[in-house]
Structures are given as C-alpha cells and as structure tokens.
C-alpha cells in the first residue's frame, strides 16, 4: 500500500520538485531504519548470549550424555545432565494447558464471532483482554493456594502433591485462553459474509455453518493461534516455578512435583551459580534448547499460514 | 450485522425452527466464554478476600522483611516497578514507534531485508520471557558489565516489549487511510512532513492504547527479573539507574515461596495492588480506544 502510493507520489512529484536533494529527509529515514534494526539486533543478541556458554557446556558434557540419559540434576553433586525429565515435564504441562485452552478458547471465539451481538462483544472482548493481562505470578499463586487444595479435597484419591504438574498445567491453560480466543476470533471475523450466506442459502443451520464453513475457512489463522499458545505455554516460567516446583523426576504422572525447562532456568538463574561454573553454563544450554523449540514452532506456524491461507477479497 | 437477519429467515424457511442441538451448541459456546471469564472473577474475589487483612497503609509504607510478615511492606517493589516502567517507556516506546513508522511508511516490502525485519519481529514476539532474562544476564549484566541494576532490568524489559509496541503502532498507522497522505503530498508536503503532521497525529490514540497495553505487560513480567538478581531481598528504594532493585511481581514471588501463612496473606495483598494498577491501565487503554477511535 505505502510502497505503491509513494511510487505515484514521488514519481510524479519528482519532476516538479526542487532538484536539490533533501538530506534531512534521508537522515530521518536512516534513523527510522536504525530503530527497526534494534529488533534484529535483539535476535542477534539472544543468539550471541546463548551460543558461547552453550558451546562451552557441550565441550564439557557430551551430547550423548545430554540427550541419552534420563537423570537431571546439574545443581547437585554429583551432577547429572540427562535433559529428558525437564523436556517431558515441559511437554506434559503444555499438553494439559492445550487440553484446557483449545476447546474453551475456540468455543469462546466462535461465540464472539458468530453468535454474539455487537453489544455483547463490546463487553466481553475487553474482559478477555484483562484476563490476558493478568501477571503469571498471580496465576501461580492461584494454582498453589486455591486450585491444588481444592483438587486435593475433591479428588483425594489422586494423591496430589502440594506442588504438581496438574494444577500448574490447568492455570497455564487459563493463561493462554485469551491468546487462542482473540486470535481465532480475528481469523473468523475475516471470513467474508458471502460464505456464510451461501451456506445458509443451502439450508445449513447456524451451527453447521460455524463448524463446517467458518472454522475451516479460518483454519490457518486458528492453527497459528494454537501454535503461538503452545509456545507461550512451553516457555511459561512463573506459574510452573510456583505451582509445579523444581524437583526433576522422569515421570508422566501429573500429580507429582516436576521441573520444566523454564523453571530450571529460573531456579538456576536466581540462585548464585557463579559465572563460568558448569551449573551456570547449563542455564544457557537449556535456554538454547527452549529458544530453538519455540523458534521451530514459530517457523512452522508461519509456514502453515502461508501455505493454507484462503485469500478472500 | 446484516448477516444476523439473513440466517433467521433461512432457518425459518427450513420449517422446523431450531432443533435442540442448535440450542445446546449455542449454550455450550456461551458457557465456555463464561467459564473463562468466571475464572477471572473468582481470581479477583479470592485475592481480595485473602489479602484483605493486610491491605493497610503499612503495605506501601514499609519495606519487606523476612522476620515480620505481619508488618512487612512492598515499598521497594513499588518504587522498583515505577523506575523500570518509566525507563522502559523512555526506551521502548520511541524506538518501537519509529520502527513502526519505518515499516509502514518507508519500507519497500519487496526488499529482502525489510521482510527479514518483519519476520524477525513476529518471531521475537513469541520468544519466552525467560529467554530475554538470559539475554539480560549474559549480554547486558555480564558482557556489557551493567550488573544487576535498574538499567539492566529496564533494557531487558524494553527489548521484551519492543515487538508488542511495534506491532500495535503499525496497526494504528495502518488505520490511517492513504487519502490523508495523498492529500498532504499533493499539497507539496515532503514525506516526513506528511508523517509528522498528518499520519502520526491521526494515529496517536491507537498508539497510546497499544503502548499502555505493552507497558502493562512489562509491569506484570517477573521471569526475566529472576535472572537479573532482583530475587534477593531488597529493603531500599532504587536511588538511580545504577542502583540494585526489585520489582513487585518478584516480591510477590518471594512471598509465595515462604512457607509461613502470613506471607501468603502478604502476597495476596501485594497482588491486589498489582492488579489494581493493571486494571487501571487497561481501563485507560480501552477508554482511549473507544473515545478516540475514528472511522474513516
């Protein structure tokens, strides 16, 4: 849009304008571009910050040890560097969160986009934004002091530990509901009305139209929303640090205390691991892994959108 | 919406009215939304009820203490958060808005480097906040030797909110119709004059809304600060940008980590303060958007 209108504006304007070059205008453009390059510098900075200690880490701990063992305890003596327990815990909590958030978030999005009147939407959307703005320490507090005791009372046979993956996962799920709901709603709102009207004209009910026409048409946007939500859940730190604890055990049992990758980084980073120690370098190795995982998901999501996007006028 | 009137008659044409499952589906959708938002209500009621006994003036007049939770306060956290937010606003907002102007008004989208910048921004928006903490620790605190200071914290958090600021400022600029620019250019204004006198003023409300939401994200953020030495008990307010500091969410986290019950009450009271600040900011943002949103 801007490129085109500039082309016409300066294109026709140039012959009429003064021939003296405008250095001020050029300087401004350079300043603006530098501002945009800060974001690129941030990525470079992240890679730079992660790379060196990670390489040093792997010169001391072999890849086979890192990925080939299921015992994790870099802060103990003797230290163990099998990363699987924290990967499994991360995936498990993410899975619980997704099971909670995808149905609720999608249903909320369908309601807001297809059913709600303008007034209802005007009330609910800001409230959803407020939910999105609740700090994660607050969710963690809630999980630890309300949800876990409640679950222990209602389902005593679960044998829930005071810190456990289940309530942490549930609250991470609540945290990502607004992401799924608002991004999916945007995607559904972008589906042109002609599609809905065509479906109604063929005699489809509102439910059928929503489920069979609108949701498939907005599919790429919905998938992008879910993937973003997954990467948020996988990288969430405070809820899991507070409600799931720091114990690293290799288990799938969600009633147990378990440490995720982000929780480990927080635990080791807030302690006093001295620079250059192997515990300090482990922070960066796990950080690299987490960064790569979320980066891969993002890339995948961008590809999905590109490949499956339905383009309407 | 026009669409809402069309289907009704279509369904009526089908004859039987709405079958039961249509109603069930609608109710299931609505209840999902209500469950999600009911959770928010429950959370608010719970923290207020829990923190009520400690919502007194000692809370913001006193400094935190490990030994006396009944009189401990959160003053260093409140001041730390104010310092961080002020510096973040000074650094992240201008940078983000300038970057957005470049991307919307100047960048030629067919050029590879501009596409790279865009891809990079959307990628950064999904990087976990703890990774920004690592960036702050490894690069700003250690490599640049800024130490665990207010400056390090503010720089880290600025980088974290920068993508959010850029994305929302771009939306605001995009909402200004091309005819405004064309009119200005046709009257002989240069491109920068057009942006500075026409586009930016028209985009201010949208950018303000986005900026407030970005800053409120910064206020609630805790994970990066864990890596930046804010986790230790800080019993004084920051005196400058090179002072050590703590922030409210970190203080809440350290209260939660204590096992004594009084600390949980204190944590709940501090959460009420934090949520009150955030709710206020959110309301201002929503009010701004509703008040000044222009339909072109």
UniProtKB/TrEMBL annotation, chain A:
Q: Is Iron one of the keywords UniProt gives this record?
A: no
Give the transmembrane ranges: 30-51, 83-111, 123-146, 166-191, 211-230, 278-300
Query: Which residues, if any, are the signal sequence?
Result: none
Q: What is its main location?
A: membrane
Q: Which keywords does this chain's UniProt record carry? A: Cell membrane, Membrane, Phosphate transport, Transmembrane, Transmembrane helix, Transport
Q: Which SUPFAM superfamilies match?
A: MetI-like
Gene3D superfamilies per UniProt:
MetI-like
Look up keyword DNA-binding and say if it applies: no
What is a GO molecular function of this protein?
Answer: phosphate transmembrane transporter activity
Q: Where is the ABC transmembrane type-1 domain?
A: 87-301
Q: Which PROSITE patterns match?
A: ABC_TM1 (PS50928)
Q: Which family does it belong to?
A: Belongs to the binding-protein-dependent transport system permease family. CysTW subfamily.
- General function of this protein: Part of the binding-protein-dependent transport system for phosphate; probably responsible for the translocation of the substrate across the membrane.
Write the protein's name. Phosphate transport system permease protein
What is the species listed in this Swiss-Prot or TrEMBL entry?
Answer: Nonomuraea soli
From TrEMBL, chain B:
Q: Which domain of life is it from?
A: Bacteria
Residue stretches in coiled coil:
none
Per UniProt, residues of the ABC transmembrane type-1 domain are 78-284
Q: Which InterPro entries does the UniProt record give? A: MetI-like, MetI-like_sf, Phosphate_PstA
As one GO molecular function, the record gives:
phosphate transmembrane transporter activity
UniProt entry keywords in alphabetical sequence: Cell membrane, Membrane, Transmembrane, Transmembrane helix, Transport
Cell cycle as UniProt keyword: no
Membrane topology, as annotated? Multi-pass membrane protein
Instruction: State any GO CC term.
Output: plasma membrane
Question: Where is the chain membrane-spanning?
Answer: 27-48, 78-103, 124-144, 150-169, 199-219, 263-288
Q: Which GO terms describe its biological process?
A: phosphate ion transmembrane transport
Gene3D superfamilies, alphabetized: MetI-like (1.10.3720.10)
Q: Which family does it belong to?
A: Belongs to the binding-protein-dependent transport system permease family. CysTW subfamily.
What job does this protein perform? Part of the binding-protein-dependent transport system for phosphate; probably responsible for the translocation of the substrate across the membrane.
Tell me the protein's name. Phosphate transport system permease protein PstA
Q: Which organism is it from?
A: Nonomuraea soli
